[in-house]
Design brief:
Elements: E1 4-5, H1 12-24, H2 57-66, E2 71-80, H3 88-94, H4 107-110, E3 117-126, E4 130-136, E5 141-147, E6 150-155, E7 160-165, H5 191-200, E8 206-216, E9 219-228, E10 235-243, E11 249-256, E12 264-272, E13 290-293, H6 297-305, E14 321-324, E15 331-334, H7 355-364, E16 366-370, E17 373-378, E18 384-388, E19 393-396, H8 400-410
Helix pairs in contact: 1-2, 1-5
């Protein structure tokens, strides 16, 4: 029989273990690799349910927290089904071509493709200072390599390379560390990083149990099941397969509350916990490759926004994120610049938008109304957004009705 712990673990000891797990799980990804959201094809075959000693959810979380595995290599399959069009074409259009300024190897232009569709990654890590992630294509490969203080990206299809200094947090703190450009932060590319994010949500709004055993990439594993206790979330459950020997998450599956196949499912198809060879993390641009040096963050933003860019101070005009609710049904309320709609900017009036454009927008969303007024809800399988007619936006991994209730509560 596969172990099963039906007790919900929400006490202080579990919370402490969860915080330790979130702190010590080392994401196997190049520092700063970003994607909106990622997942794995749910076609990874299990080899039956191994007979493992029984374990409680608290013990399994503590096992993850105690894991100090920092060396591995292998292949990861990724697939995402959020109910939105493929972003591959958008990524291609954002990647500079020909005489355009920039590089087609720039991670900020290339990694958007991981937000939809199916992908195969080859990953390797040797501690916090050496990681490599390669996105494998039919006839080309895109790689990011972090080695000490250096980060390289290379696109074999265009023979272009991108080079920058590693983010300060990835290579320690020095007097010049804050001057280097930081690559964008985002969802990691392996089950470890995704499990970390899921564990952060494990509070009194969450049920955490052990739901049997499985095999992933030939390794025996326990299955940790994380489910919302609250109604109104678009997330039905999160399932993490945890290596029974070393506590490393091997597979992460997020299933929407609406049912159907997984929206996000990431897992190893092949994994080796031995030390990768040193040349895995070395990179020299091939002969004839175009090499682009990354700008530091402030200069890059000034170049993008022009001479009127005011740096971080300018972002303070965006009066921000007001979080409504808690746990899995929390909703972010975003106000227009200047705070309330109309304070520094006016909401569009009827007739301001061309009829054809208005019809197109209406076709994409559902008109709703409530105590807040009226607006349009735009839905995916996970994240939904309500845009009110007076210029506010409410966003969360919640249902349409939950968005309307949040907007009403904010009035």
């Amino acid at each position: 029989m596969a172990p099963n712990d039906s007790a919900q673990t929400t006490d202080g000891n579990f919370a402490a273990g969860r915080r330790k797990a979130a702190r010590y799980i080392v994401p196997v990804a190049v520092a700063g690799v970003a994607a909106a959201t990622i997942g794995l094809v749910p076609a990874l075959a299990d080899s039956g349910d191994p007979d493992l000693p029984k374990i409680t959810a608290q013990q399994l979380v503590e096992k993850m927290a105690a894991s100090d595995t920092q060396q591995l290599s292998g292949n990861v399959k990724i697939s995402t089904d959020l109910g939105i069009p493929s972003l591959g074409g958008i990524a291609d259009s954002l990647a500079p071509r020909g005489g355009d300024e920039g590089s087609s190897a720039d991670p900020q232009a290339r990694l958007m493709e991981l937000a939809s569709g199916t992908h195969t990654l080859r990953v390797a890590a040797d501690g916090p200072d050496k990681q490599r992630v390669s996105v494998l294509g039919d006839a080309a490969e895109y790689s990011l390599i972090h080695n000490g203080g250096e980060v390289w990206a290379y696109d074999s299809a265009s023979n272009e390379a991108f080079h920058t200094k590693a983010p300060a947090e990835a290579k320690g703190s020095g007097k010049d560390s804050g001057k280097h450009e930081k690559l964008p932060e985002g969802v990691p590319t392996t089950p470890k990083g995704l499990a970390e994010e899921a564990l952060k949500a494990a509070d009194d709004t969450t049920s955490v149990t052990v739901d049997g055993t499985t095999q992933v990439a030939g390794r025996d594993a326990y299955q940790l099941l994380v489910e919302p206790k609250q109604s109104g979330s678009t997330i039905g459950s999160v399932r993490v397969a945890v290596d029974a020997e070393n506590g490393v998450p091997l597979k992460f599956t997020l299933t929407p509350s609406s049912g159907g196949k997984a929206a996000i499912d990431v897992g190893f198809t092949k994994v080796d916990f031995g030390k990768p060879s040193a040349d895995t993390f070395t990179f020299t641009p091939p002969k004839g490759a175009k090499v682009t040096e990354g700008d530091d963050g402030p200069k890059a933003r000034e170049k993008d926004f022009g001479k009127d860019f005011k740096g971080e101070e300018g972002l303070k005009d965006f009066e921000g994120l007001n979080v409504i609710g808690k746990g899995w049904t929390s909703v972010a309320e975003i106000s227009s610049p200047g705070g309330e709609a109309g304070a520094g900017s006016e909401a569009p009036e009827a007739g301001d938008v061309p009829p054809q454009a208005q019809q197109f927008m209406d076709a994409l969303g559902d008109k709703v109304s409530g105590e807040f007024g009226s607006g349009t809800v735009f839905e995916t399988r996970l994240v939904n957004a309500l845009m009110t007619d007076d210029g506010k936006v409410y966003v969360g991994a919640v249902t349409k009705d939950a968005l309307v209730r949040a907007a009403d509560a904010a009035k």
